[in-house]
Amino acid sequence: QVDAVRVYVNSSSENLQYPVLFVVRQQKGVLSWQVPLIFRGLYQRTYNYQEVSRTLCPSEPAPEKKPSDQIIFVDVASMAPFNIAYELLVTRLENFQLETNKPFNFTASPSQPQYFLYKFPQDVDSVIIKVVSDAVYPCSVVSVQDIVCPVYDLDHNVEFNGVYQSMTKQAAITVQRKDFPGEQFFVVFVIKPEDYACGGSVPSSIHGNVNRTWNLQRTKNLQVTIVPSIKRSVYIQAMFFSFLSFLSFYLGSVVVAFVHYIRVRRKASAGRLSPEDGSGIMTSSHPITASTPEGSSYGAIDESGSSGGRQLSSPERGPPAGSDTDSSVEEESDFDTMPEIESDKNVIRTKVFLYLSDLSRKDRRIVSKKYKIYFWNIITIAVFYALPVIQLVITYQTVVNVTGNQDICYYNFLCAHPLGVLSAFNNILSNVGHMLLGFLFLLIVLRRDILHRRAMEMKDVYTMDYGIPKHFGLFYAMGIALMMEGVLSACYHVCPNYSNFQFDTSFMYMIAGLCMLKLYQTRHPDINASAYSAYASFAVVICLAVLGVVFGKNGMWFWVIFSMIHVLASLALSTQIYYMGRFKIDLGIFRRAAMVLYTDCIQQCSRPMYMDRMVLLIVGNLVNWSFAIFGLVYRPRDFASYILGIFICNLLLYLAFYIIMKLRSSEKLLPIPLFCIVATAVVWAAALYFFFQTLSSWEETPAESREKNRSCILLGFFDDHDVWHFLSAAALFFSFLVLLTLDDDLDTVRRDKIPVF
């Protein structure tokens, strides 16, 4: 048993000019303080305490058989020209050593800090120090220090040694045996003289009195419990669970591919494959595992029933179908099969009822190359974005490990399992699903792409004239974005805090934007946005997100400017969508918009020419204006999540509109996309439930954030946010499959019969 002695002193004198000095000399150290003991706060405020109690550095029990005496000298001195009364009391601590799984209650104050000893049991390699209190304030600090004298147990020096974190009602520190060669450590508890570090305010009686000394009595009741942490076997189980859970998706994809292969072989042997097969399955098109043609030469369609434009040359007179190599393809402006395209497209796009053949007239090689730019650009963006992010978070983790300041990173400390230099390995491991499922989606898209190319080489007439034109560039970009979301989310969770939250959301914006672009491209392949303009728009959004994080907390001017940009951008995009890209956005846009409003709404108030589009855009603008008003009124502190909410709501609105219009047009949902839609809805609902289980918040102080910390809920290793990572990865994967397979029922429908909406 380790012996520890505590010295209590009290002086009735409040004369700061002549304090009483106490010096305690031990065999291995010297400890000194004065009474009144003075603490400094913000703006040079001072707080004095007449009662001081300090624990002396303990001595290890001697190896000799007979007990040895411990000699302590206490020197008391003062320069006062008059007598000063004081009280001195030396006591032996009975409960200095903490025991495993046994709660211990005590009281501390700024002038009466406490610290205790803990020794690792033989079979324990890691422990969690859990500290709780019923009171939020006064603000306190919990520190873990090596067995070194002197012990730093005052507000001005507690940060000099060991690992520490601030605390209001709850704190937790994970300690590993390997970090302490002596297999023991001190747990130090310090009460701060002010509460500003924990989010509190300075007492009202102090405002305006900077130079006055305040004798505040601040005590806090605390309870400390040290419990064993998880064993290494739990780490192994968690890693197996993470990888096997998502590798099962690979197995499921292989099973689906094999089943469809068998079905196609049976139909082929029975001679029952035809354009009007009724199952939506053609020789070169099968849901998930096979492919539909990539649009081929769009001009081969008979336009007599659906297009007012001229009929273009057939694919037999064009370039070979198998020449879908980028080497022979130049820029879009250099090669176009539409004669007089500028005048022709305006005639076509002004029709009241548009069909897919009207918006899929450009040469498939040009359009295919246009969408492949999405893939190559996002790879470039990912590399240039991820490398400095990785370097920065490594620096953050190094600073945490070197300084011991656990207020830098906002972990869920009750479920933060370290591994190597990483403080919360579980939050990083749970992002493996995004990377594995993103890669699986790339493989599924690659298979479709390969089967498409084979069909093009066969020059099957049905691959030329039927179904939605398939361009895979956006799908490849979505797969890369899903993988990068996993990488950057893992980087963010290396040290989650206010400064790097945009790492976790940047590719979420891109995923939502790419999904909307892909949904629009499905029936508007010729007029979709180019990769350059799309990524430039994403860059503007990310810049706004950074500005919002910096200035959005208190800057009303920022919210006014952002709301104006949001509303104007919504109107401009709505105009482009409604007029199919024929409404130019330049300095004369306001004059033309006023002219359209006057002629269509005032001069003759008539029914909109494109009613379905108008309904979608009205609802979409109402939603976006509502977001703008909400942001202007409430000014949410989490600006990055606010923008993400705008993207997600717009995506869900557009997807719902697309599915409704698809069903209205007497199109059907095949079993595979129907299953993906249901799975997407169910998994997203479950994922969002765990997402809103807030476990930490960098919008608050670190101590306030720790009040939200909770214990692990899965395998004793993963917390609610880790489950959100798992489920959101699966939900995004199913969402991508919805976009990939949604229109597989149209593979046997002529393009001049497929409506545009």
TrEMBL record:
Full protein name: SIDT1 protein
Signal peptide residues on this chain, from the entry's feature table: none
Annotated localization: Membrane
Residue stretches spanning the membrane: 238-262, 374-394, 428-446, 474-495, 501-520, 532-551, 557-581, 614-633, 639-660, 672-692, 723-742
Biased amino acid composition, Polar residues: 281-295
Family label: Belongs to the SID1 family.
Gene for this chain: Sidt1
Start-end of Acidic residues biased regions: 327-336
UniProt keyword list: Glycoprotein, Membrane, Signal, Transmembrane, Transmembrane helix
Region described as Disordered: spans on this chain: 272-336
GO CC field: lysosome; plasma membrane
Record bears the keyword Transmembrane: yes
A Pfam family recorded for this sequence: SID-1_RNA_chan
Main location: membrane
UniProt GO MF annotations: double-stranded RNA binding; RNA transmembrane transporter activity
Statement: the UniProt record of this protein carries the keyword Glycoprotein: yes
Membrane topology of the entry: Multi-pass membrane protein
